[in-house]
Amino acid sequence: MTSSLIKATVVIPNWNGRQWLKGCLDALKNQDYNNFEVVLVDDASSDGSAEYVQVNYPDVKIVRRTQQGGFAKTANAGIRVASGEYVVLLNNDTIPSPSWLGRLIRVMDRMPPEVGSLASCMKCMDDPELIDSAGDVLTWYGQVLKRGNKRPVDELDCAGEILSACAGAALYRHDLLQDVGGFDEEFSSYIEDIDLGLRGRLSGYTCVYVPNAEVLHKGHGSNIPPRKYVRLVTRNRLMLLGKNIPLRLLVRHLHHIFIGQLVLSIQYGRPVDSIIGYLSLIPRIPYVIRERRRILTGKMLTEKDIDGLLLLSPEGISLPGWYSGTKEKKRQ
């Protein structure tokens, strides 16, 4: 843990998000808590984002990447220069409420050291009465979901332990980031936050949802081509499971995983991109094997504990008729 007097470092990964930066940075200037620094990590943007921030927000520290590398590398670059006791990840297409950061910090200050991260209440910017994300959910079908997505905000108004935080608006202890090694840069973009959260859980840390730490979120503010998105999430779903889940659990839920991949690929409507995503996992298999050995050798949870972290019922996908008749009990 750093000995700096700065309490928190807010890290904003940015790629061609200039249109969103004013709203985000102005909202940070209006926080009712002021013991923090802001680091913008620009991932080789071509829209003048870094130059805009340099001129209009001179107090913001800028880290410039010369080659685009995705969210994980960009976030890690910010974490490396962070001097705060806590590291706070914030998407560029967000507008945090004035009390957002102070509430997260006051909650974490009261928490025991095993609480490694906090999740914000991310509300839909286009309809603030609805939740965009109240943390991350992972199912045995390989789905990575936004917890509470499109549900009324008041339905999830209680704080509590969850699987992991969405890195679009999350606070992390330095100890957690150091122990698990930050975001896995092999993921590039997408699902890297739930991978971090799951590795944290395996290392003995927990994550808590803070419902009154509110942030408006547009979502996909830095648009990525659909074909690239499908390729990345298809590959990363399996890499997530392969790295972090014990073999006996993978075998036990193999039929769930297979059905989930099949149905999700159909729903994307981009079969070629799904296939390319699966094929792109092949050269990374040696890396996945090395990482799973390292991660699972030191795991602090039993297989029963790990099994319970993932939901058994699919959400948001329509299973084939011959399969959907199977009664599944959803773990809460």
State the main characteristics:
disordered C terminus, two-stranded antiparallel ribbon, alpha/beta, Spore Coat Polysaccharide Biosynthesis Protein SpsA, Chain A, 12 strands, 332 residues
Describe the protein's architecture and organization.
The chain is of the alpha/beta class and 332 residues long. It folds into 2 domains: 8-217, Alpha-Beta Complex (Spore Coat Polysaccharide Biosynthesis Protein SpsA, Chain A); 226-324. The chain has helices at 18-29, 49-56, 71-81, 100-110, 174-180, 192-202, 226-244, 247-252, 254-268, 271-279, 285-297, 303-309, 321-324; strands spanning 8-14, 36-43, 61-65, 86-90, 94-96, 115-124, 127-133, 136-138, 144-146, 160-162, 169-173, 206-217. Strands 1, 2, 3, 4, 5, 6, 7, 10, 11 and 12 form a 10-stranded mixed beta sheet that branches. The protein has a two-stranded antiparallel sheet with strand order 8-9. α1 (18-29) links the parallel β1 (8-14) and β2. The chain is globular. The two termini are 33 Å apart. Mean pLDDT is 92; it is low at 317-332.
Short description:
The protein has helices spanning 18-29, 49-56, 71-81, 100-110, 174-180, 192-202, 226-244, 247-252, 254-268, 271-279, 285-297, 303-309, 321-324; strands at residues 8-14, 36-43, 61-65, 86-90, 94-96, 115-124, 127-133, 136-138, 144-146, 160-162, 169-173, 206-217.
